[in-house]
Amino acid sequence: MTDTNAITRQPTQLDYASPAQFKFKITKLPKVEYFCTEINIPGIQMTSATQTTPLRDIPLPGVKFDYGDLSLTYMVDEKFENFEEIHNWLRGLGVPIDHKDYANLLAAGRDRFPSQGKDVSLISKKEQPATNMGAALSDATLAILSAKNNVIKEVRFIDVFPVSMSGASFTQQATDINYITSTVTFKYAYYEFSEPGKSASQVPTT
Questions:
Q1: What is the per-residue DSSP string for 174-189?
Q2: pLDDT tens digits, residue range 144-173?
Q3: Which of 22, 91, 166, 206 lies at 20 to 30 Å from 9 by C-alpha?
Q4: Coil, strand, or helix at residue 172?
Q5: What pTM was estimated for this model as a whole?
């Protein structure tokens, strides 16, 4: 049952969340995560249904909802290695030049999906191209830190992949050095909250 006692419903944590206390890790982009300066927890929008009545129509919860995009801003390193990491991931997904680009992307993800790229047919017993693109995707974790830099909450993003990346601009007219940054936008299957070292939280049943 829902507890309606005002005393027992008092919060135990009264500190506010700091926008600067975070760490971000994404499996496929080790050179990007180190230079990450800004990240977001995307919003969620749920569809709704309508029950018609002779009087006012009654809104009801829908059956689907959409996640907003995951947006990451990072400082570009001097050799553009982190910029190239994302470029190559996008190139492998989009295959703009050679079909081998996608095969190379899958091969790079074999550490996460060892059987990716090979699917043994039960009929012919021969290896066939795999249809699962899991190795082309990645998982990511946003760690929310306390004032003492301890991880107090994790937001885990499942099956992440990039869809866009901003370019890099150079200029000789800057009065001060403003280091180059870039922003990459990701899509993903879903995200979930968890405590450090624990499985994801579940929807309450009481």
A1: -SS----EEEEEEE-S
A2: 999 888 999 999 999 999 999 999 999 888
A3: 22
A4: coil
A5: 0.80
